[in-house]
């Protein structure tokens, strides 16, 4: 009897352990396997002003209490979030004694990041902005992903969405059968939740791009944790999914930032080729960005990609960047064998903590291409869904153990 009680207690403890993850308290009314977008001019129009007219989301799909969230487009500790119960509980659950003792970086007078005094030769903090480092020096942090390993593979990624004016762009991707990795800004998700739902509905791989898009190495530990945490919560609220991957704005990541991301089980996805499209028409002529595209496209056929693929940095910012994507994708598809998202090129079946949505592995994706002489992009396998609900295998095991222990007690 005594030992059976212990078994029950152990099973209960096991359930508590299984449900202790930080994202378990997140809520969402959206079923990512059956996203139905309300039919509004904002979700269908191609007119930028119409698309970007603010709407009140259907409360049965997306609603939130502003006092429980950071201020949109400000550091995620704002609006009292650094003292909220949920954030304090999370903060205190982390063993900060293990955090690396790495300096918070500062800005130059010109507004860039100052690397003055940093040892760029030894690069002790694996600071990408200073050295391009992508292999952490610190043990026990998740290692960055920065390319697609398969030959002649273009890793398709778009940052800074969901942008209100993306309808023509997403329709184009859909028509071409392309699934991209989309790095969403938490503040944009809160402003344009239907845009995030559309990303999931279309089978794109959604990842985090922080709450307010700042140079992460310049933020305190507390601010970093909040930038990650509230973006996870926002993406879950709008899509029903919590990402396991994130991308550093400006690539500004070091081992302190990686360590905090790893506390939330987040892994950084960077890139190895940059189109610099974000500055097209601003500090760089559009033609210069087009030349960058041309080089990367040429690399697909001139032998440069014979042994490896890439991940290309491009943006969902506005008509300039999205139109560049639309104009170049047909040539990209012609010159590369595979144009795919990072989850598929890295065999990441579950890019979200929920195991409701699964992605094909690279070989599953290739096997699904049955078209004779057709374009790979038009037969990309769709995001397959698994039948099991959000509950984890771990939880089910614990429940089985508990029921077995209870049954044993009853028999006694
Ligand atoms: C999907 O959602 C729509 C609208 O919410 C609903 O009518 C439909 O029954 C759902 N389909 C499935 C397969 O759950
Ligand atoms: C919360 O952040 C504010 C500024 O954003 C700061 O003044 C305050 O000290 C912080 N509180 C805690 C508990 O860290
Ligand atoms: C893919 O199919 C669409 C029609 O569904 C077609 O318009 C488009 O040109 C095709 N793309 C390629 C690269 O063949
Ligand atoms: C999160 O990471 C910790 C430490 O690496 C690990 O023990 C835990 O199982 C992970 N949780 C999930 C849900 O992946
Ligand atoms: C898009 O943003 C860039 C950078 O701010 C800007 O230079 C460009 O003019 C914008 N394009 C449009 C169509 O607004
Ligand atoms: C392939 O094209 C790229 C971009 O134009 C160029 O940098 C590279 O040198 C070329 N490689 C070969 C083997 O021609
Ligand atoms: C989204 O696109 C619109 C229209 O091009 C642009 O005005 C706006 O600045 C963009 N918003 C963000 C947050 O990038
Ligand atoms: C960019 O703007 C032009 C002119 O309004 C429009 O025809 C085009 O579809 C837009 N492109 C995208 C990708 O939104
Ligand atoms: C993906 O899986 C294939 C087939 O098992 C394997 O050859 C390839 O190395 C894997 N790629 C990665 C990044 O693990
Ligand atoms: C799909 O098949 C076509 C034609 O056989 C081939 O050119 C393309 O590389 C294949 N794509 C994939 C992903 O295997
Ligand atoms: Zn960005």
What report would you give on this structure?
Its cofactor is Co(2+). It catalyses: [(1->4)-N-acetyl-beta-D-glucosaminyl](n) + n H2O = chitosan + n acetate. It is a lipid-anchor; GPI-anchor. Pfam families: Polysacc_deac_1. GO terms for molecular function: chitin deacetylase activity; metal ion binding. With 412 residues, this protein is of the alpha/beta class. The protein folds into 2 domains: 2-20 and 391-411; 35-97 and 118-352 and 355-385, TIM Barrel, CATH 3.20.20.370. It is built from 15 helices and 10 strands. Strands 1, 2, 3, 6, 7 and 8 form a 6-stranded parallel sheet that branches. Helix 1 (2-18) packs antiparallel against helix 15, helix 9 crosses helix 10 (255-263) and helix 11 (286-299) runs parallel beside helix 12. The longest helix has 19 residues, at 221-239. The chain is globular, with a radius of gyration of 22 Å. Mean pLDDT is 89; it is low at 10-16 and 370-412. Bound molecules: 2-acetamido-2-deoxy-beta-D-glucopyranose (10 copies) and zinc ion. Zinc ion (ZN) binds at residues 159-160, 209, 213, 249.
Structure described in brief:
This protein is an alpha/beta fold and 412 residues long.
User: Kindly state the mean pLDDT as a whole number?
Assistant: 89
Given as residue ranges, the uncertain stretches (5+ residues, pLDDT < 50) are 10-16, 370-412
CATH T-level fold name of the largest domain: TIM Barrel
Helix content: 25-40%
User: What is the terminal separation in angstroms?
Assistant: 7 Å
Largest sheet geometry: 6 strands, parallel
Class inferred from helices and paired strands:
alpha/beta
Order of helices and strands: HHHHHEHEHHEHEHEEHEHEHEHEH
- CATH level 1 class label of the largest domain: Alpha Beta
Whole-number tally of structural domains: 2
Enzyme class: hydrolase
Membrane topology: Lipid-anchor; GPI-anchor
Domain NodB homology: 152-345
GO biological process, one term: polysaccharide catabolic process
